[in-house]
Write a structure and sequence with these properties.
With 1467 residues, this protein is an alpha+beta fold. The protein has 46 helices and 63 strands. A hairpin with a 7-residue loop joins strand 52 and strand 53.
Length: 1467
């Protein structure tokens, strides 16, 4: 047995019209008149307490004056809180938190009335005029009172709502006070957020917790600043210290004041409906930034309300209400809709807005309450979300509604219709199902009962207002929250068996026992109200709030998150398990929303709300035996780790089903099958958007198997049909749903029965049932078959095929097997489907399924099964899911859905578009719709054949179609038809239109118009027409014309045949050359046999490809010109003997170059090479490549290398060094290749070849070559020489190169330091030489001696700056060395001494040194060593030696200096 877990504690009186559903269950508004005392007459004012369900109403009585009364949520009058005065009440204001009401009277009296005792506190006499203003501060510690005379007083109230002394301040404004509003308090610090920031290292957040700083504001503080307006349009500000300040002044009296928190702006509306907005500065100044005129109907009272989200709403007695969005600057209107029951001319007098439900209510002149529900329509930009207002079905009361107000935490609505006050409350309609009986509440006192086992539909009128209902097959219980009434069902009649008082909000039934909750206990009642047993709960376990019964098990959920299960199978309820605290197992758990038990008491399913009050998107399962809690997260679409899926197929099913982004809202276990579970889920946009209200347009029903061994296994998932309201129960083989208002229930055959308290025929069927997927067609099966099908479905789900077939092997019913086959379409189990089809005996379906196995997509194969079983919608869905639009197209065509087939072909299957058009045209033709068929034949591009065939019996229509289409193929068909009708002239006309020249020539020849036929063939050049005409001429012995037209038709064999027959040799050669090789061969044989024109025969043999035959005939008949032309076509693939004969022929006639080509082609390379050498023929690179043998089969390696070297030698003799290098390299002789490359002088290639060859001798050769270049001025060449000698491992050569470098530095630059470095490197190289002999030692000694001398000279040069005499002595000593030059040139030493003497003016000494230098180097010019300046100074002082006085010598010296070039040869 199942029961709705949580029901609203509302107390309706009469049913009103049902608005559009916005929760999981049906909801309506019930109204109740307040129980007004007799002294009250016309209600004038009403106001709700913000939190408590207390309504204050003022009324007037002409005889007694004014009254104020307080009513509870059900309209009960609180007698102790009745206030009566001879004056009229003017203002009513509730304390924001305490049950204290402030009342203002027209004589200036202000009274505080306390609920529930009715204590009255009259404020000290401060006002003597009409009270116009009463306003509490946000926390209720201040009360502001104001009157018509402009007197304002501020009072202090304690935390209990008691007045404390006299007024704090009294201000006089001398004008009537109209409005007062407190400025909202500034938000306090979020302590939790500051704590998290402090832990993460935010020092500013940490400082706020410091004791040194200002105290932390842990919440919103009370705002004591308020604004008050006067009748002259002025608005004043009163601060925390009650000091007043005038902010601004308006034109006209102020009607309303509102505060816009987001902008910190004050909104002012005057009596003339001018709206202004002022920004408020920190110093109390105000600045206007917007003014608009609000629209209104003249002469009508205006009702204005303000919403927290910035909407200003006005009702001005029109058929529309106006809304201004002050934050966005938009405005729009909301109008009544006559389609929803409103009348023409109906106007709206008052409005009220409920922020908790986002509902705007408006009272009309015809006694209806219109309600709009606000919804945010999201857009791509969060700041641009659009607000939509959806009008609901109206709530009807009576009279002219002049005042509306939402209030209290229960969101109650009070309505004043001038005669009385009504309280409206939203109520969720109750429904319940158990043991094949379902009941649904239709109104506060009416129930609809359906007995599904008998198909009987009953109705019940209760004696009280129903807030909950529970039913079994024998007992029906209803309750109101105050009383429980029990009925016993006997046949089709309900008998009242008992009633008793009970305050429980939930009641369940088992075996005529009733279970109800009270504080810390569950009471078990008999139908008469006797308490049979108490089930007590400890204080830690909490108060029971949830009850649910299934079979003989009762599950109880408490407000502390504990659950307990009882076994009811015995006389007394026994505990089935210990109390379980789910809060220990479920993180972030706030409270239980719903708890259900399965049929054997082994599993509990649980819905919870989180700590923040939002519903959890997880479905929890508690295994009683294992004492474990697992869950399935519908938001992520995955179960917890504790929930297993045994087979891969099941995981695939979970992935295929769109579980992600959903939240469960209700759940049920099957009444008899403990494994079967079902729940409803709704789509949610994001986890943060979870709230109490859901969008129920996308509801899925998910059915699962739940066991200890296999965890959660998906059995089925489908979208709830749109006509159904909510899931009510699961009882195999049906789901049970409540229906939406206006929808008809299905699956039942009602046998309506009248009741004594109401006629059932007046009520609709409100419960519908839908068959489970596995039981379609098996609704009436017996229990054994039902159990077998359940086992089969379970084992199929876990993938145990053996057990699945064992469970149904005894079933013989064809309907059962067909149902299982249909189930296989849902589960996509083709292996099971084959067995089902076999048991069904459906050979055709089995064959189709076997043929469909060739399709690669599993969905396509399942779709074929669905087609064979008549499940066309499933087949269509499957084809779409696998994107097999070709098969979907064929499916649509086969099922006659031609429009869908055409749409599919045009959008997704264009490869079969023309075929689809053709098939549709054939279909239209079969139905006689030839005009549309013609269109689709044209679209399929088959109209040229199909349309004439279709219209062949309608000649006139066909002729019109032919003339209209102007298609060549159709013209041709029509011409053939006319020709068959012997209408030759018309046929010729249409043949001409069709450009069918063959048919034109044929018809003209038939008619004897040969000349016209010849002109057509010549003008068009049509081959077929020319051939037909040539045949005609040949048949009439006109050979010349026949040959001509055979030639135009390119039928050369026929033309050649006629030329041979009639001796037309001149034309024969031309035709043979145009024809194929066979015809050429025949013509050549003809000329050869005839013995004339042998050159033509040779040429034809050659052209036909018979080269050997042509050559033999050419040699035999000495056709030299033909031989030359044929030789050009010979190549390596020709016969070598033939090539040799041709080469000999060309050698004989001195055509050596052609002979060489032929010898190479004949692979006689040596002979070709000898011919090149003998006759000095240039070997080109192409010829060399042709003579280069790459295949060892043609020549052995040794012979090949020898040939390559001979080719390279020949290239060397001819000066083609690069080609010689290439061939030497191919031959593997890199040394000769390098020598050839050295002769070419290509430095870049020499360096490259040496690097890639990496041979020592090649490195040395390249280095020796590079020394011949200008390496002194090119550092790259210098580096390359050193690198190559190093890589060539030639230290002696490298040492010689370094020695040459040193000598260049001395001779050219006199740079002895660099020369010393070079000689040092040379000595290192010599020391590294491996062959240490006497010559090597002598070389080393020589280098060391040179190094020593150079070091001395360098030392003398460096010493000169510090000690000139010592330096001069060292130079003199050097001159005494026996082998000074060439290590240190003698001239450089003398130059050093002469320069010193000249610098010190000792020219005589300088002159002596010059003479000594001349003696020691008589063959050299001393001007090369001595600077010209020194020579001029010496000549001026003492003259020059005789050898230097002759000017010619000087010129020779200068010339010699210009021509000096050192040639170092170190090789």
């Amino acid at each position: 047995m199942h029961n709705i877990d949580v029901l609203h504690n509302s107390y309706p009186v009469s049913a009103l019209s049902v608005p559009e559903r916005n929760t999981a269950d049906m909801a309506v508004y019930f109204d109740r008149r307040v129980e007004a005392p007799d002294s009250s007459d016309v209600p004038t004012l009403l106001t709700w307490h913000l939190a408590l369900p207390l309504l204050a109403v003022s009324s007037t009585n002409p005889s007694s004056g004014g009254n104020v009364d307080i009513y509870l949520q059900q309209g009960e009058h609180v007698e102790s809180c009745h206030v009566e005065r001879p004056q009229q009440p003017t203002v009513l204001r509730w304390h924001p938190t305490k049950p204290v009401l402030a009342l203002g009277w027209e004589n200036g009296e202000v009274l505080l009335l306390t609920h529930p005792y009715g204590d009255q506190t009259v404020l000290p006499s401060t006002h003597t005029a009409y009270i116009t203003v009463l306003e509490w501060s946000s926390s209720g510690s201040r009360l502001v009172t104001g009157d018509q005379a402009g007197v304002l007083a501020v009072w202090k109230v304690d935390a209990r709502g008691k007045l404390q002394g006299n007024h704090l301040v009294k201000n006089e404004y001398n004008k009537r006070l109209t409005c007062c509003i407190f400025r909202p308090p500034s938000p306090g610090d979020d302590v939790a957020m500051l704590a998290r920031a402090s832990v993460s290292g935010d020092e500013s957040a940490l400082d706020k917790f410091s004791w040194k700083g200002p105290p932390l504001k842990s919440g919103p503080q009370e705002g004591l600043t308020f604004y008050v307006s006067t009748a002259d349009g002025k608005v004043h500000s009163v601060d925390d210290n009650c000091k007043t300040n005038t902010l601004f002044s308006m034109e006209g009296a102020v009607k309303k004041l509102y505060y816009l928190e987001k902008r910190e702006a004050l909104v002012v509306i005057t009596e003339s409906l001018m709206l202004s907005q002022y920004t408020l500065g920190p110093a109390g100044e105000a600045q206007e930034f917007m003014t608009v005129k609000l629209s209104s109907k003249i002469g009508q009272n205006v009702d204005i309300v303000w919403t927290n989200n910035g909407f200003l709403i006005t009702a001005t007695g029109e058929h529309v209400i106006r809304l201004w969005d002050l934050e966005r600057g938009d405005n729009f209107i909301l109008a009544l809709d006559e389609n929803l029951g409103f009348e023409k001319g109906e106007v709206m007098n008052c409005v009220s807005y409920c922020p908790a439900k986002d509902i705007l209510a408006a009272g009309t002149s015809h006694g209806r309450i219109a309600m709009w529900r606000m919804a945010m329509q999201s857009s791509s930009c969060k700041s641009n979300n659009q607000v939509q207002w959806k009008l609901q079905t109206p709530t009807e009361v009576e009279g002219n509604i002049i005042q509306l107000q939402w209030g209290s935490s229960l969101n109650l609505l009070a309505a004043n219709n001038s005669n009385t006050v009504l309280i409206l409350s939203e109520h969720v309609m109750s429904a319940h199902y158990s043991q094949q009986v379902a009941t649904m509440q239709l109104s506060p006192t009416q129930l609809s009962i359906t007995q599904f086992d008998t198909g009987t539909h009953l109705a019940l009128q209760a004696d009280m207002h129903i807030t909950g209902v529970c039913v079994t097959k024998d007992v029906l219980a209803v309750w109101s929250g105050k009383q429980v009434i029990v009925y016993e069902l006997s046949g089709t009649v309900f008998h009242h068996t008992g009633s008793f008082p009970c305050d429980s909000h939930i009641v369940v039934i088992h075996d005529k026992n009733l279970y109800a909750v009270e504080t810390n206990k569950v009471q078990i009642y008999t139908p008469q109200g006797t308490v049979k047993q108490l089930l007590t709960f400890s204080k830690s376990e909490g108060n029971p709030v949830l009850l649910s019964v299934c079979q003989s098990y009762l599950v109880v959920g408490t407000d502390t998150g504990h659950v307990r299960v009882y076994d009811l199978s015995r006389r007394e309820a026994k505990a089935h398990c210990n109390a379980k605290n789910l809060a220990d197992q479920i993180a972030n758990m706030g409270a239980l929303r719903s708890v259900k038990c399965n049929a054997n008491g082994s599993q509990l399913s649980i819905l919870i709300s989180q700590v923040n009050g939002r519903p959890d998107h997880k479905m929890y399962f508690y295994d009683i035996e294992m004492d474990t809690v697992t869950h399935f997260d519908f938001f992520t679409g995955r179960p917890s780790s504790g929930v297993s899926q045994s087979e891969e197929s099941e995981r695939q099913q979970f992935q295929m089903t769109d579980f992600c982004g959903r939240c469960p809202i209700s759940h049920f276990w099957d009444e008899s099958e403990p494994r079967l579970f079902v729940c409803e889920t709704v789509q949610i946009s994001s986890e943060s958007s979870l709230a109490g209200c859901f969008d129920l347009t996308d509801v899925s029903v998910v059915t699962l198997f739940c066991t200890q061994e296999h965890g959660l296994l998906l059995q089925d998932c489908y979208s709830k049909p749109p006509g159904l309201q909510a899931l009510l129960a699961l009882d195999v083989p049906y789901y049970y749903f409540t229906c939406k208002p206006g929808e008809k229930a299905s699956e039942i055959s009602p046998n309506q029965t009248d009741q004594t308290k109401g006629s059932a025929s007046t009520f609709p069927h409100m419960v519908s049932r839908r068959v489970l997927r596995d039981f379609v067609g098996l609704e009436t099966c017996d229990k054994a078959t039902r159990d077998a099908m359940l086992n089969f479905s379970f084992y199929l789900t876990i993938g145990d095929m053996d057990e699945a077939f064992k469970s149904i092997k005894f079933i013989k019913s064809k309907a059962v097997w067909e149902n299982m086959a249909q189930m296989c379409v849902k589960t996509r189990r083709l292996d099971v489907a084959r067995v089902c089809l076999g048991n069904m005996g459906s050979a055709r379906a089995a064959k189709a399924l076997r043929e469909a196995e060739a399709e690669p997509e599993p969905e396509a194969r399942v779709a074929m099964l669905a087609i064979q079983l008549g499940m066309l919608e499933d087949a269509e869905t499957l084809y779409k899911s696998c994107r097999r639009y070709d098969l979907l197209n064929n499916f649509y065509q086969a099922s006659g859905q031609w429009q869908q087939a055409l749409d599919t072909a045009e959008k997704n299957d264009r490869i079969h578009l023309r075929t689809t058009y053709y098939n549709y045209a054939k279909y239209l033709e079969s139905t006689g719709n030839k005009s549309h068929a013609l269109t689709y034949y044209e679209k399929s591009d088959t109209h040229r054949v199909e349309v004439p065939r279709m219209l062949q019996d309608d000649t006139s229509s066909l002729e019109i179609y032919v003339s209209k289409m102007k298609d060549k193929n159709i013209f041709k068909w029509w011409a053939q038809y006319l020709e068959s009708q012997s209408d030759m002239d018309s046929a010729l006309l249409y043949y001409k239109h069709a450009q069918d020249y063959l048919s034109l020539v044929r018809v003209h020849c038939y008619m004897g118009n040969i000349q016209e036929a010849s002109e057509i063939a010549n003008d068009t050049g049509d081959r077929a027409a020319s051939y037909h005409l040539a045949r005609h001429y040949e048949s009439h012995d006109d050979i010349k014309q026949a040959v001509h037209f055979y030639t135009r038709a390119q039928a050369y064999n026929n033309a050649i045949r006629l030329c041979k027959e009639y001796g037309l040799d001149d034309q024969l050669m031309k035709l043979a050359l145009l024809s194929n090789p066979e015809d050429m061969m025949e013509a050549a044989c003809y000329f050869e046999e005839k013995g004339t024109h042998m050159a033509k025969a040779v040429s034809l043999y050659h052209k036909a490809g018979y080269v050997s035959k042509a050559l033999e005939l050419a040699f035999a008949t000495q056709q030299f010109s033909e031989l030359e032309s044929m030789a050009e076509a010979l190549n390596e693939t020709s016969d070598p003997t033939l090539l040799t004969r041709c080469s000999d022929f060309f050698i004989t006639h001195s055509h050596y170059d052609k002979a060489v080509d032929l010898l190479v082609a004949a692979k006689k390379y040596h002979q070709a090479l000898e011919l090149c050498v003998t006759h000095n023929l240039t070997i080109t690179e192409e010829l060399a490549e042709r003579m280069t043998v790459t295949d060892s089969k043609d020549l052995p390696d040794e012979a090949r290398k020898e040939l390559l070297e001979r080719i390279a030698d020949c290239c060397m003799r001819q000066g083609n060094y690069h080609l010689a290098t290439k061939k030497y390299t191919h031959a593997g002789n890199k040394s000769k290749a390098m020598k050839a490359l050295l002769k070419s002088g290509d430095t870049e290639k020499i360096i490259f070849f040496a690097n890639i060859s990496r041979q020592k001798e090649l490195f040395i050769m390249a280095a020796n070559y590079l020394q011949s270049l200008d390496w002194q001025n090119d550092p790259e060449i210098l580096k390359t020489i050193i690198c190559f000698y190093t890589k060539g491992r030639a230290p002696n050569l490298l040492a010689g190169f370094y020695e040459a470098c040193a000598q260049v530095e001395i001779d050219d630059y006199q740079n002895y330091e660099k020369a010393l470095d070079a000689l040092t490197e040379a000595s290192k190289c010599v020391s590294k030489a491996k062959d240490s002999n006497e010559k090597q030692k002598a070389k080393m000694t020589e280098l060391q001696h040179k190094i020593s001398l150079i070091k001395k000279f360098i030392h003398a040069q460096k010493l000169y700056e510090d000690d000139a005499s010592e330096a001069l002595q060292l130079c003199e000593a050097l001159l005494e060395e026996p082998e000074l030059d060439p290590a240190v040139r003698i001239g450089d030493v003398f130059s050093f001494l002469v320069e010193h003497s000249c610098q010190h003016g000792n020219f005589q000494a300088a002159y002596r040194k010059l003479e000594e230098l001349q003696r020691r180097l008589p063959s050299q010019n001393i001007r090369y060593y001595i600077s010209p300046a020194s020579l001029q100074a010496i000549q001026k002082e003492v003259g020059l030696p005789p050898s230097l006085e002759d000017g010619s010598d000087h010129k020779d010296i200068v010339k010699e200096e210009d021509e000096v070039e050192e040639d170092l040869n170190i090789s």
